[in-house]
Design brief:
With 662 residues, this protein is of the alpha+beta class. Helix content is 18%, strand content 36%. An 8-stranded mixed beta sheet has the order 30-31-33-32-34-35-36-37, sandwiched between helices. The chain has a 4-stranded antiparallel beta sheet with strand order 3-4-5-6, with no helix packed on it. It has a 4-stranded antiparallel beta sheet with strand order 7-8-9-10, with no helix packed on it.
Length: 662
């Protein structure tokens, strides 16, 4: 097993030199062995979330005889249910929530369930929420305070479909559905937050006009006081100050973006860390989780910034980052004694490795990689870029550059469009879908078109109703930019994407028939009128309101922006794939598109897979899909992969001959 150790001169032991054969697809398509770790307060145990096909369970490891690790217990969940939100409530008792996700690209939906287990696997039980098989009425149930002085109870916030206002509840961690209500939010929707002593003091919600507002109370017995949101965009509470007089909030307001301190009694706002273009992504707390000391920002390569760089915990972060300049460093949590911590390292080439930090000696030792089978030395590097769209809006993106290529020059390129579209965004790091393409020699371009998250509320919010219009223009402008920079061969460009990205791939070849040689559209939306009528989104009033806002209500515009009505404009090669159980971009979208292509006599390749939903879970199906996708790209724009041995003259001749065909 690869080992990474830190003794202030860290070195990474890499594998053998680059091979002359492409990597097996299963290397990219297998699910990670672990997705996160949480260390117990005493430092004796590790809780890990473990993907198991279409579900994610929990495994607890024994750290007491480290470096030897042994499995103490495991807990599995049901079909399409995934453990999340791990939290130790005592040295021996773990609680966690779960969500449902019917497909790899589907939007996770909270189950409202909370589970608990002892470290040794005893007393495994559901402690709150609807039983499996019962209808899910609770939209959100999450722990907001572990109440260390009361190891039998925790504080949770719950939001339900049958009431607009969140409730804070005290629940028993040893028995099912034993709860008592602590507070009701004075505001609709949003959430409640507790101070560091476990008192519910702070609320975020909306007023009748859907404007986000704050509320606070001095004590449990005090009346709630509301005050106007001093920000124009959405905010997120990150936690209270140690004395309880203020809360730290993340603001997504493009004019006031970053981390701010809000005084509860006055509503006064103090900026702590701000940025003009990118959002703060996650907080950085001190060892005792009493003081906010910084935040990770959505810069091209994520960046940790500190309110006080000389704070002792900040110095630990900075020391680790200085010793590991090629990695993003995240400290996931300290023990109560502050002698140990869990650290996650990742990079564009390393999917992730969890480390155990000896805090006193600043020594790191490997616990477990997320994907031990991935040879980091053979992965592609990811280069952030920034440019301006045709109307001057700054846009950010990523280029995944094939291994062995120093500077991309007239390479075959795949434009990969992310799903969502509102909220998700492409981030620097290891991505199996872009890495597998780059492994075959394709330059991969990703752009965070307007509507993407990570760049402020207005950047996202102002893009509602822009499907097939300005949002598509951003993808087009990024493609032009890569060609103009000389990175991509102008005649060897394909567009690809899943979910909204599948929609964008089809609109790309419709609106820009001369630009793209091919399109791969996966679990996409192709008829906007149909999108508003079938599937899990329009099945609720909230979903219908969202769709009215997202794609509009004008039938003429919906038809004009629906790929299914414009297939006659397509000149590119097509590959369309969908899962038979997809209820998000409902599978009827696939059928109406295929029917339209067949009526128009447009050649196309297709793959319909039973048992899969909005994205494919089964590794066998993922390998099958991408073996066909890569062959499709090869036929359309030529294979980009050649052996990386500079002395291989035969391979160089083949590459030149391939390029000459275009």
């Amino acid at each position: 097993m690869r080992m990474i150790t830190l003794v202030f001169g860290l070195f990474l032991v890499v594998g053998p030199a680059l091979a002359n054969e492409p990597l097996d697809l299963e290397i990219f398509m297998k699910h990670p062995e672990f997705t996160t770790f949480q260390i117990s307060p005493s430092g004796e145990y590790l809780a890990a979330t473990v993907p198991q096909g279409d579900r994610t369970g929990v495994t607890i490891l024994d750290l007491r005889e480290y470096p030897r690790l042994s499995v103490m217990s495991s807990m599995a969940l049901g079909e399409n249910e995934h453990a999340t939100g791990l939290g130790w409530v005592s040295d021996n008792r773990l609680v966690f929530t779960s969500n449902r996700q019917a497909g790899d690209l589907a939007q996770p939906q909270g189950t409202g369930r909370i589970w608990a287990t002892d470290a040794d696997g005893r007393r495994q039980m559901q402690i709150y929420g609807p039983r499996p098989g019962e209808s899910i009425n609770i939209r959100l149930a999450q722990m907001i305070h572990r109440l260390p002085d009361d190891p039998r109870r925790i504080l949770i916030v719950e939001r339900s479909l049958d009431r607009e206002r969140p409730h804070a509840l005290m629940i028993d961690v040893d028995r099912y559905q034993r709860s008592s209500r602590v507070a009701i939010s004075p505001l609709e929707r949003g959430t409640l937050a507790a101070d560091q002593d476990g008192n519910v003091r702070f609320a975020i919600g909306v007023d009748e006009d859907m404007n986000q507002k704050f509320a606070w109370r001095e004590a449990d017995s005090s009346d709630w006081q509301t005050f106007e949101n001093p920000f124009n965009g959405s905010i997120e509470p990150w936690g209270a100050t140690a004395d309880g007089t203020a809360f730290y909030v993340k603001s997504r307001d493009n004019d006031n973006m970053g981390v701010f301190r809000v005084e509860l009694a006055t509503g006064n706002v103090e900026p702590m860390l701000v940025d003009d273009e990118v959002e703060a992504l996650s907080p950085i707390w001190d060892k005792d989780e009493r003081q906010l000391i910084g935040a990770i920002f959505n810069t091209g390569v994520p960046e940790a910034r500190f309110i006080d760089p000389e704070h002792p915990t900040a110095r630990v972060w900075r020391s680790l980052q200085a010793a590991l300049p090629d990695y993003m460093v995240q400290i996931l949590g300290f023990t109560d004694g502050n002698d140990r911590a869990i650290v996650r390292l990742y990079s564009d080439r390393e999917p992730g490795v969890f480390m155990l930090l000896d805090v006193e000696n600043l020594a790191l030792n490997e616990l477990a990689p997320t994907r031990h089978w991935v040879p980091a030395e053979r992965m592609a590097r990811v280069q952030p870029f920034r440019f301006e769209a045709r109307d001057g809006v700054p846009l950010h993106g990523l280029l995944t550059i094939p291994p062995g290529v120093e500077t991309p020059e007239r390479l075959p390129m795949v434009v990969e469009v992310h799903g969502g579209p509102y909220g998700p965004f492409d981030q620097w790091g290891w991505n199996p879908w872009t890495q597998v393409k780059a492994s075959r020699g394709y330059l991969v371009l990703q752009v965070n078109f307007r509507g993407s998250g990570g760049y402020g509320f207005q950047f996202e919010n102002d893009a509602y109703g822009m499907w097939g219009a300005e949002m598509q223009d951003d993808v087009t402008d990024a493609t032009h930019w890569a060609i103009e920079q000389g990175y991509a061969h102008p005649d060897r460009v394909c567009i690809s994407g899943g979910s909204y990205g599948g929609y964008s791939a089809m609109m790309g070849v419709i609106r820009e028939p001369e630009m793209y040689r091919c399109a791969f559209a996966f679990v996409g939306v192709y008829d906007l009128e149909l999108f508003k009528e079938v599937g899990n989104i329009p099945s609720s009033e909230m979903g219908r309101r969202y769709l009215d806002r997202a794609v509009g209500t004008d039938t003429r515009v919906l038809r004009e922006r629906s790929p299914v009505h414009h297939v006659d404009r397509i000149q590119a090669d097509l590959f369309i794939s969908h899962g038979a159980e997809d209820r998000q971009a409902h599978f009827e979208n696939y059928h109406v598109l295929i029917a339209a292509l067949e009526r128009a006599g447009i050649p196309h390749q297709k793959l319909w897979v039973e048992g899969e939903g909005h994205g494919f879970y089964e590794v066998e199906n993922r390998v099958k899909l991408y073996s066909q996708v890569l062959d499709f790209f090869d036929r359309s724009i030529g294979s980009g992969w050649t052996p990386r041995d500079a002395g291989d003259e035969e391979s160089a001749d083949r590459a030149q001959a391939s390029a000459a065909d275009y």
